[in-house]
# Entry
Amino acid sequence: MEMNHIYLDHAATTPVAPQVLSTMKEIYGASFGNPSSIHSFGRQARKIMDEARRTVAASIGAKEKEIIFTSGGTEADNMALIGSAMANKDKGNHIIITAMEHHAVLRSAQFLESIGFDVTYLPVQENGQVSVEDLQAALTDKTILVSIMYVNNETGMIQPIVEIGELLKDHQAYFHTDAVQAYGLMEMDVTALGVDMLSVSSHKINGPKGIGFLYAQEDVRLKPIGYGGEQERKRRPGTENVAAIAGFQKAVQLAMKNRDKNQQKYSNFKRLFLNILQNEHVHFAINGDPSNMVASIVNLSFPGANVETLLTNFDLSGIAASSGSACTAGSIEPSHVLTAMYGSDDERGKNSIRFSFGSFNTEENIKEAAEKIADIVNRLTSKEGDIK
Amino acid sequence: MTENRKKRVVVGMSGGVDSSVAALLLKQQGYEVIGIFMKNWDDTDENGVCTATADYEDVISVCNQLDIPYYAVNFEKQYWDKVFTYFLDEYKAGRTPNPDVMCNKEIKFKAFLDHAMSLGADFLATGHYAQVREKDGRVEMLRGVDNNKDQTYFLNQLSADVLKKVIFPLGHLQKSEVREIAKKHQLATATKKDSTGICFIGERNFKEFLGHYLPAQPGEMRTLQNKTVGKHDGLMYYTLGQRQGLGIGGPGEPWFVVGKNLKDNVLYVEQGYHNDALYSDGLIASNANWINPVPKTFSCTAKFRYRQTDSIVNVKLMEDGRIKVLFDEQQRAITPGQAVVFYDGEVCLGGATIDNIIKEEQYLDYVG
# Structure
């Protein structure tokens, strides 16, 4: 019996779009030059990169020189935090982030803390958002950086970036946002958002892995976090991954073109998905506030179940989803995001699953997945004597 | 679900060679095999390094070689509540617990079995050296054919209902054959060293580990005639028949632990491996588990420790649920807290926990 595999984990990564793949194949085959070389081969590669940079910059209303290609979202976040903190020590040593940031930001902040910076970890409200008042209260004249994600990767909760940008307008602190989960779905004009730095990853928008960028407003003082050549205006050494950059460009073009359509599509998927679970009498709750959530992500808590059993059962039925709780080698660390929202004793930290939709999902596989999930959850929770 | 669907087996994979080969054999036999790594203990050190991570990496390598899915499951809480708490309580009571028996009973063949069943598995398999067979409608557990490796001693608390759902793919093999199979198939774990010691202590210093959880109360070492001959570091650090670490010098034969007095915090020691104080005629045991029903009195063979050769015993089920076991020949250093496991030839009948020691029709008080 051949099983239908259904992918509902697009917040983890997405399949590469066919157009992206063909662009990359072409570039890999034809343009192997090193963009820094002064001969024709180098120029050819450099031209491809320049065009990609133009596309990417335009997609967020930035200047080309404000785009630093990186190996992905993690490096962009690392650079934004460590690079700007190191370059602005003279202005202060205080950094503010939220407790729900991606580990790329969280662990960078912890590193900075270990070398003497003061870090404030803002709490998260039960609705999954950070409070602008909390941020205001935490700001001091020593604050040099505020890093708050645009959309949380586990809950899909949209953060009040515009309000925060407004608040920080007249403060010395740089404002960085990790926009990895927002890019391709949300309004993304850096001036309108009021951000100084913004991180984006390619593989979340049907582009290749191993590429992303950091937008850094041209006046932002930034130290490199790696050492070598003078690529990316001396901010990021290493020979550029030209084919990946070209593939990324293609993915950006597709994402921009299809943004509204995709949003509509994912909203429909989410509605359909939740309706089926409801009709099948599945006992669940949405983590976060649906009115401030991206369409592509929904994080559900299933009382009476647990993450490991759910995910294993889903996978054995061909359904790919994930949870924010790290389950490497059997250690369960409850999701730091849900813990920040609900406290460490709350069961939701251990019984919640993130489903994330993508452009290659169809209504049929959303339906099939929802029905299978309903069967599994009902089977697992009925044992607990749950009355549905 | 179609009728001829492959039977689904969950294999408990530790990252060792035994469970790797167990998974391989099941796959060859045509089962749908799922590898699951169990994490029962968090030994993460100050550098964030934990042996489970490396072991799980080995599980992943082997599962990828076999092309089977792999997952992990965490039973730290259950292990703490059911095994580790028991382990500490027994030491507090001056006894010598057997956490492996308890782990099999409460974790591997209960919590983990439930987990496997919740994944739609038909069977649970492990790399234990033991065999299950059905005979005349009864499920029986037999020793593993490798005498040196037979693990039925640790599995004595499993019920027939549990064994019905269990496969031990290595039971008919010698350990050397298992290694050979692993090498032949170039499994990532083929040459990995066998783990030793109690799983949560590993190769760490036992004394240090225990002292971390239980306060040690040093006291006196005395002979059974109450003559003080030395000092002990805490009764929990000693077990009956032990010679090492007593630190008593002087003339004559070496000294051995022969008993404990918990009330006065005294460790009893006597001289000579074959000192009469170490020998007994029988025992009383509780928590008896019989894989299949047994008569009220019967004779069979028994082991009082892992890897001991069998001795002939006469068993009597008592009114209060405990059992009385009388030995054909006197036994040395029978230890409260350890398991007594019964056999009829190759068949393991079940087992119980040793509570009291009998000598000349009386309880030996000094053993503790």
